[in-house]
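WARN  no MSA supplied for this record, continuing single-sequence
INFO  ligand: zinc ion
INFO  echoing inputs
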Amino acid sequence: MPWKCFLIEPSPYCRLSLRRFTFSKETVGDTSIGFRTVEKSCPRGKDWGHDAFVVIANQVEAQNERSTLKGEFEGDPRWPARCVSCAYVFEERDQWQVNYDQLWKGSPDGKLYVLRESPPGAMWHAHWLEDATPNRYTGPDGKAWCLMMPGGVEWIVYGHSSIGEGKDRKEGPKWQVSGAPPNITAHPSIAIGKRYHGFVKGGVISADCEGRKFPAWPSTA
Ligand SMILES: [Zn+2]
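INFO  complex generated
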């Protein structure tokens, strides 16, 4: 069940969504009554807050941006009322976010996607990684590249692997990568948590070598 790699690039469009969320721990109070930390974590996972978003326009001409103000959506009935993963009901003081997420073009199905929902095989130039830490993630062309893997996790092509788990986790060597994006070959295999383990060879992502299936994303190679 392999997937072919392909290049994507920003389109002139964004997806507009309204998001409510909490941080897993929040500080409440003021200088007169003092401050305390309250737990607002979600049962879906340790260190995760509650979260929900609703897409209100699939494609609008806009700049990629997020705002922590309600702005023109003050009082809009479409704001999510509850966490998507549990029964938590958002309070007024929880976080508000108006998101214009960049849509990317180049997928073989002709559709536009926000990065984190891109199909397996999508590969993009992540210039923000170059800006954040110059030279750390760059390849022979001087650019940082990411590849969307099955399971919805991105892999930094010229980044470092990691060794060990939890507190013992430390930085490992970089992969040996040959070829130019999107027709790359990487050695050794790529394991991303418990979500995917396989190979990238000649611009094709292999089926999971531990047998995981990804029914949402049919094979493309
Ligand atoms: Zn929740």
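The two ends are 8 Å apart (CA to CA).
INFO  checksum written, moving to next record
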